[in-house]
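Journal club prep — side note

Before the paper discussion, L.F. wants everyone to see what a predicted structure for a comparable chain looks like in token form. Sequence:
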Amino acid sequence: MPTLTDEPAEHATPTSTLSSNAWARALTAAHDTSAHQNHPTHTLYVVATPIGNLSDITLRALHLLNLCEVIACEDTRHTQQLLRAYGIDKSGAQLIALHQHNEHEAAQTVISRLAQGQRVAYVSDAGTPAISDPGARLVDATRNAGFRVLPLPGASSVTTVLSAAGMTGQDGFVFVGFLPSKATERQHAVQKLASETRAIVLLEAPHRIEALCQALSVLGTRRVTIGRELTKQFENIDTLAACELPAWLAGKPERQRGEFVLVIHDAPAAHVQGDGLRVLQLLLPELPLKTAVKLAAEISGESKNFLYDQALVLKNAAAE
């Protein structure tokens, strides 16, 4: 089964145990199943690509990537590598770099190609574009210019981890993505999340996962599912209490490698630790730690021991 190596998606190298003839047959199958469908010109196609395992590509995506005249991509080198793994031949002139730093300008290039009657596909480095990856501004600009946008569904780290989290609540989920990188801003963001009773989906990079786990530990016994290197060779999915996250991460060195998706499980409103943390955060800068904890417990009715533990975490985060 073809996979990407156990590295972050943007640095992964496609390797395959299948022969090029096998991928040629896949392209033939893609053509046979999709060629009769309507793929209009003057159209932007938003195409999902695998988040790790090369086999997680749809036949429709293979057909469209082979058919379109232009592919706009987050990283032209990564996309060219991906296309070659599937046996799709595109010249450098057929690839347009469109990423977070040039999305506005590159969108105008895409629109000019659409005006010429071309089909343009947009792919990010991995997964479904325009959710956490670039692409939303491109879609908005394309629609404002009067051109059609068609999505091709496929791999998504968000739905992948949710399907393995085992949640039974009926209130849905909130997609947050990446929290702020600065400690104080991240701390404030986690405090807001503490009062959210629905499930919450977060993304994180390997160089920041330790700080995120430390920040989330203030959520106490609320369950968190953490997915690492989803669909890749060393995929790892674990569910544990938020307060156990720092120890879990430190338990094995390899747990800090790769890309992460986390689900903070849904929780009944009565069990959410929210008011105490909010009061504690307001009091800590003004009062000694023990005094702040005592007052926060009296005001919120929450456990003094719990708030004391969280006060230590907050103090450590502020010192970063």
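L.F.'s comment for the group: The longest helix spans residues 20-34. Keep this in mind when we get to the figures.
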